[in-house]
Task: inverse folding
């Protein structure tokens, strides 16, 4: 099966929480990698997201160490929706 990884940047305006993390992450921009697999048998090219990883710390943070943590796509989507809702 053909696979690929795409990268995007997500922005949080407030601290946020994701399951599996010890605490809240600070507001900022974060790189997110999506692992995707080609869907066979469709009439046009289509990709299915099968995994996601967030890079820590935030892009602007000064740190000598970086981590890439696996996350659930639904948790990320929920956190982004919550962050982007008007107060």
Result:
């Amino acid at each position: 099966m053909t696979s690929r990884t795409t990268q995007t940047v997500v922005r949080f305006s407030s601290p946020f929480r994701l399951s599996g993390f010890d605490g809240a992450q600070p507001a900022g921009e974060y790189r997110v990698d999506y692992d995707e697999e080609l869907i066979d048998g469709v009439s046009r090219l289509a990709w299915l997201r099968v995994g996601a990883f967030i890079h820590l710390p935030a892009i602007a943070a000064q740190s000598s160490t970086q981590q890439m943590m696996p996350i659930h796509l639904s948790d990320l989507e929920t956190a982004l929706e919550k962050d982007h809702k008007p107060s």
Observations:
- Residues 73-84 form the longest helix (12 residues).
- The mean pLDDT is 93.
